[in-house]
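Reminder to self: keep the SMILES exactly as supplied, no canonicalising. Ligand is coenzyme A.
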Amino acid sequence: MTFTENFEGYELIPANIRSQVLKARIAMYREWGVDIMDEETWQKREDLLESLEFIKGNLTTWIFGLGLEDGGLDFHSQFETIRRPVFIKRKGSKNVEILDSLCIPTYTCDKEFRGKGLGIKMLQAARSKMQELCSVSILHSDVGSGFYSRYGWDSYPLISTKISVASNQFEKSNDTLFFNKELARIISLVDSKMLRTDMSRAETNDSTVISVVPEFGHYEWRNVRDNFEGQNCLNVKEFSENYGVLYCGDQTEAILRSKFSESLLDGVAPECPSFIMWTHRFKENSLLSLRARINHIDHIVPLINAALQEAKSCSLSKIEFWNFQTEFLGFLEEKFNVESIVMKKSLPCLALFDKNPDEKIEWLLNEQVSFV
Ligand SMILES: CC(C)(COP(=O)(O)OP(=O)(O)OC[C@H]1O[C@@H](n2cnc3c(N)ncnc32)[C@H](O)[C@@H]1OP(=O)(O)O)[C@@H](O)C(=O)NCCC(=O)NCCS
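Structure tokens returned for the bound complex:
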């Protein structure tokens, strides 16, 4: 590639030829896959993920490089976007709208081309392009807050809380129920509806409130990806069917199911139980919470006990939460031996492209469910 310092003739386009997509994937493999799998396995993994509802029709690979006379592109920098819905309630409005956002799971320049301004130039181009296509973009930065903030992605704090199996006493209580994939889909619909209802009822006159819609497709994508790694790279032999655990109190599964059906009817105020939705993150030896809804402080201990039991039975050494509901973090630390750290990597960043200068943004569900 001829590298031109002023980037004259550079374009940002969606990769529209399969060979461009595969080339971009290799660049991503070199960055994030090489430690755990070979290139062929990585391509297989990406093919598998492409077939899931979360990705199908929602993933775009963007390539940035020098336009060629034959219509091709000489590129060494690339990123991906995944389209996913967000709830947004603008400052001063009473309505919760649902909008498409573009989330960025990967962003990279080939090693030989780093430190020459290419990454920031692509970001500038990405910002202009995305502004035309959507109003919200989310990413998790591994390069601190300064890089992405230059073009409008503001960073938010991230606290990781880990609870180890070995240093806690636990037993499963009858007040909790493990649920599988099929029930996870229903719970996520009720959870989303309740989140939207709560957002529309909340008094939020001084800020705009945004949340990704916590969809089943996201949970499935994370679980399929981790199970693929477990099976193909980490020699895991047995897999749990459990997608999570919910707090049921004295209600049977049949009663819960009929309440869920009712909750999803038009005009009915939804009732979603407290729950933890997770993925078995074998690579990190962790049961990773993707979403934790805690409706009442009394539900925390039974849910965490059940999650610790799940981790133990899957030979995982800990459970991990990102930004556990702030009002309950102190209680969690009181009841369990936990390790909470302020993260420097995976910093959540959000851009609202038509933000007014004084518009404050509150980002709800700033946990793993927002991570792609
Ligand atoms: C991050 C990345 C895309 C930047 O591309 P690049 O072409 O090297 O960046 P640029 O030359 O345009 O640098 C622009 C600025 O970002 C800063 N920057 C670059 N990489 C950085 C990093 N890893 N951490 C913090 N700041 C970084 C540079 O210092 C520079 O700042 P300056 O203008 O004040 O000197 C590239 O380093 C990369 O591919 N890294 C590996 C993959 C990765 O971590 N991607 C981000 C995942 S969230």
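Points to follow up:
The two ends are 31 Å apart (CA to CA).
The chain has a mean pLDDT of 96.
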